[in-house]
Amino acid sequence: MGPDDMRRAIIRIAHEIVERNHGCHDVVVVGIYTRGVTLARRLAEHIASIEGVKVPAGALDIGPYRDDLSSLELPPQLRPNDIPSDIAGKSVVLVDDVLYTGRSTRAAMDALIDFGRPQRVQLAVLVDRGHRELPIRPDYVGKNLPTSRNETVEVRLKEVDGCDEVVILDLAQGQTTGSQSSPEA
User: Helix, strand, coil: what percent of the chain each, to 5?
Assistant: First the structure.
């Protein structure tokens, strides 16, 4: 995905969120660190431009909720949670860049419950690459991108990485297998 593809996907997801929630009343958008936070802010901006109402956007650190903490050499770096409003009784849209096994989403739901009991939790991802290990399904998807297990998907965002693109890297060969940012891709 190049910059235009990403922009269109985010705008489409914003419209879908508004439609599914019958507006944006009681909607809170929460991004999972790192790139999910940037995507959540972008979604909130687009929803505000559609509805004319500011939608709260926040950040969630799932590090302490990971199910692989005992196997890590170093504990995860803790980042500040920024939940912009009381989420009790609200529709919370969790935002992440890539959905793979579903374990990050499970950790995010566990973390979110520490801040209150939402009416519902929805999941928005820019890329769904498949290979789920848990029964988790996104409500909003920018692009389904089937991959093999020896590939990884990198989402690069202008605010974090200096450019907007989604690339597939072949872990076995250590190279990009399908950058979508070039005109010929």
Answer: 30, 25, 45
54-97 tens-digit pLDDT: 999 999 999 999 888 777 777 788 899 999 989 999 999 999 99
Contact (Cβ atoms closer than 8 angstroms) between residue 120 and residue 151:
no
**How far apart are the C-alpha atoms of 7 and 32, rounded to whole Å?**
19
Q: What is the CATH number of domain 3-70+78-147?
A: 3.40.50.2020
Enter the tokens of residue 6: 């990403």
Neighbouring C-beta atoms of residue 69, cutoff 10 Å = 12
Q: Cα–Cα distance between 172 and 24 in angstroms, integer?
A: 44
Per-residue pLDDT tens for 18-62? 999 999 999 999 999 999 999 999 999 999 999 999 999 999 999
Residue with tokens 């973390």: 111
| Bond before 147 cis per omega within 30 degrees | no
CA pair distance 169, 171, nearest whole angstrom: 6
Residue showing tokens 């687009």: 46
How many CB atoms are located within 10 Å of the residue 25 CB?
11
- Is residue 185 very low, low, confident or very high in pLDDT (cuts 50, 70, 90)? very low
